[in-house]
Amino acid sequence: MTDDHYRRPEPPPRLSADFDQPAPGTTTIANRTVERIAGHAITELDGVGGSARRVLGVALGNENLDASANVAATVTGNSVVLTVQLSVSYPQSVTRTSEDARTHLMRRIHDFTGLAVSRVDITVTALHSGAPSNRRVL
Known about the structure:
By secondary structure, the chain is α+β, with helices and mostly antiparallel strands. The chain has helices spanning 31-42, 94-113; strands spanning 48-49, 53-55, 58-60, 70-76, 79-89, 116-128. Helix 1 crosses helix 2 (94-113). The chain is elongated.
């Protein structure tokens, strides 16, 4: 076979889109998606745990450090507001732990979604003792 008869394969067609420009369309991140990301992000912190669901102020279930925190998110445009219920391990400072949780949530939500967290309201529903209780109930 001579060079005259050999055909090189044609290169793939070039895309005309400019990848430096944003693609047409929108991306919407659901409230529930942000809630799940925040719930997981809380578990990355030491001494912070979950909160039992509440109905009329009454806890339904256990509040323990192994459970996930209750998180509600409201996404509006490019910002999000979080409401978090969590528990803290004694003897950690409730104020410092809450501030650490707030800062961590703001950073992680932005890292994962690009959304700006404009507000994080935290309710500490329980304080857990590290020592098991040896008290007898009669």
